[in-house]
Amino acid sequence: MTIDPARAALIEIDIQNDFCPAYTLRSGEKLPPGALAVEGGDEVIAPLNALAAIFAEKGGKVAATADWHPEGHVSFASSHPGRKIGDRVELPGGAGQFLWPDHCVRGTRGAAFHEKLDQRPLSLIIRKGFRRSLDSYSAFFENDGLSPTGLGGCLKSLNVETVLLGGLATDYCVLSSALDAVRLGFTTILLTDAVRGVGLPAGSIEAALETMKKSSVLMIPSTDLSFGA
Fold it and tell me: What is the pLDDT of residues 80-109, one digit of tens each?
């Protein structure tokens, strides 16, 4: 598939330490697995870096999202006495919330981007999930489906027509971002070699991929893309 970078944006979703396996920093310090480590999560970095470099060279837009939770966030199981990770709770207004370990607390090392992610091509960083009582999976909207992060309006103002999505995790933040991108009218491409999933509950990754296919999300490995204009 041929992409015009001038009309496209690469969105790198939540490439943060808390979502990645253990690794050794350039300094030699060893970081343990993140609080919500995704198996193979760091494997998305190389294809995203390669694609971001192409976008930067050809004038395309590259954005990254990051969970930026306050302590005591509604998505943390620790914020709900008697509940455990993997439980689902009902919130005011009838919204459901899946419970996770404490992760990506703003200002902590776990919330920082992985050291190997090349941030030089980034023109925009979206911090999400920063409201204590409202989670945000999608790069475009908070989980109420109404409160925008600002990314959609920004991309439309730049005449972006196509968005390419990679990052973590396939079955949550990537899924929600892809569905919202389609809803906003963007041609939406999932970079199949640049996503990894949580797999909680069992079957969630396969279900997410099927949902995206049915919603007109294109499934393409980054190596199958070419660039025009």
Answer: 999 999 999 988 765 689 999 999 999 999
* Neighbour tally for 146: CB within 10 Å: 7
CA distance 207 to 180: 17
Average pLDDT, the chain: 95
The whole model's pTM is what? 0.95
* 58 classed as catalytic: no
- Give, in order, the Cα–Cα distances in Å from 74 to each of 17, 45, 83, 185, 198: 20, 29, 12, 30, 19
Q: How far apart are the first and last CA of the chain?
A: 13
Q: Is 156 a catalytic residue?
A: no
DSSP at 21: -
Ranges of each domain in the chain = 2-67+104-227
- Which residue out of 128, 135, 171, 180 is catalytically annotated? 128
Residue 116 CA to residue 66 CA, distance in Å, equals: 15
Q: Which CATH architecture has domain 2-67+104-227?
A: 3-Layer(aba) Sandwich (3.40)
